[in-house]
Amino acid sequence: MKKLSHVNSKGKAEMVDVSEKEISTRTAEAFAEVKVSKEIINAIKNNTVQKGDVLSIAKFAGIQAAKKTSELIPLCHNIFISKIDVELKLNSKNKTVEIKSFAKTNAQTGIEMEALTAVSIAALTVYDMCKAIDKSMIISEIKLLNKTGGKSGNYFTK
């Protein structure tokens, strides 16, 4: 059985010591989706949401959140983010807001959590900005698309 890296000899959770790991370039991409009503799609498209430009504000919320990941996830390391980008796209046919993030670092540990945090908070921001129109939105499909670098190698969604 593989030894769990986040558990100490007493079975208690602990932060992993990454001081012996090599610094390498690491990237991650994540995805989230917010299912919305036709009314919300039209309001976002026509920029008539009372709180303002949903896609721009959600993009910056995602970027800000990625920078705060280690403050939100208890055992997550605080790493320097070289690049974080969040893109939001309306899909009128599927009535969704599609959110994708890209994160990059040169560090001793991965940047997947930052990419996932970015799309999660961007999705919650879409919800917050549009809830006055319709509260039945569904946030789903939060997932890691791929990651590169590090000891465990590359990962690509199947």
Give a description of the structure.
Strands 2-3-1-4-5 form a 5-stranded antiparallel beta sheet. 28% of the residues lie in helices and 29% in strands. The protein contains 4 helices and 5 strands. It is of the alpha+beta class and 158 residues long.
H/I helix tally: 4
**Structural class based on helices, strands and sheet pairing:** alpha+beta
What is the CA-atom radius of gyration, in angstroms? 18 Å
Unreliable stretches, pLDDT < 50, 5 or more residues? none
Question: Can you give the helix content as a percent range?
Answer: 25-40%
Distance from N terminus to C terminus (CA atoms, Å) equals 25 Å
What is the H/E string? EHHHEEHEE
Strand arrangement across the biggest beta sheet: 2-3-1-4-5
How much β-strand is present in the residues? 25-35%
Mean pLDDT score: 94
Strand tally is 5
Report the principal-axis shape. Answer: elongated
Tags for this model:
five-stranded antiparallel sheet; elongated; 158 residues; alpha+beta; 28% helix
Mind sketching the topology for me?
Elements: E1 24-35, H1 38-45, H2 54-67, H3 69-72, E2 83-91, E3 96-107, H4 112-130, E4 138-148, E5 155-156
Antiparallel strand pairs: 1-3, 1-4, 2-3, 4-5
Helix pairs in contact: 2-4
Offer a concise description of the structure.
The chain is an alpha+beta fold and 158 residues long. Helix content is 28%, strand content 29%.
